[in-house]
Design a protein that fits this description.
- By secondary structure, the protein is mainly beta.
- Helix content is 10%, strand content 46%.
- The strands form three sheets. It has a five-stranded antiparallel sheet, with no helix packed on it.
- The longest helix is centred in the first third of the chain and has 16 residues, at 2-17.
Length: 162
């Protein structure tokens, strides 16, 4: 029980730090404003046994809990912005969830190379190569073809606490 309490306390500290996670955009002088957040997905069981999912602040999380990382973007400028890149590093305490969009552009090498997870591979310490897995993802990235003046949107990806 003490070990579980220590894990819950550590994970709570991680959860509180997650919203402060840096977001990377291609140009600091861009009129596109980014704001990141993270929510925990909790399953609520009603007295009749039916289940609903709610998004709640991640105050206490434990390994296996599901989080949704989000980035809101808004073009506050008077011109359209083309090919805007948003890059989010995954915190070490999480792995990309297995149900993440398979078309999501990810990196498994710290942001050096990008692609769909199914197209990436990992070279293990013994020199063998294997297909990359969700747990190998270090970053996610979106390239927004065009953001009109005043336009906004939200980008998300699901993750699981390790």
């Amino acid at each position: 029980m003490k070990k579980l309490n220590k894990i819950m306390i550590a994970m709570s500290a991680i959860a509180m730090a997650l919203p402060a996670m840096p977001l990377a955009a291609q140009d600091a002088a861009s009129p596109v404003v980014l704001k990141g957040d993270v929510m925990a997905e909790k399953v609520i069981t009603a007295p009749d046994g039916s289940e609903t999912r709610e998004m709640v602040p991640p105050t206490t999380i434990v390994p296996g809990d599901r989080l949704i990382f989000g980035t809101d973007y808004a073009n506050s400028g008077s011109d359209a912005v083309s090919n805007f890149v948003v890059t989010n590093p995954l915190p070490a305490a999480v792995r990309l969830a297995p149900d993440a969009d398979p078309a999501l552009h990810v990196s498994v090498d710290g942001g050096k190379t990008w692609g769909a997870l199914s197209a990436l591979s990992i070279t293990d310490s013994d020199g063998t190569t294997r297909p990359a897995a969700h747990a190998d993802v270090t970053h996610v990235r979106w390239v927004l073809a065009s953001i009109a003046p005043g336009a906004s949107g939200r980008l998300t990806y699901p993750a699981i606490i390790r």
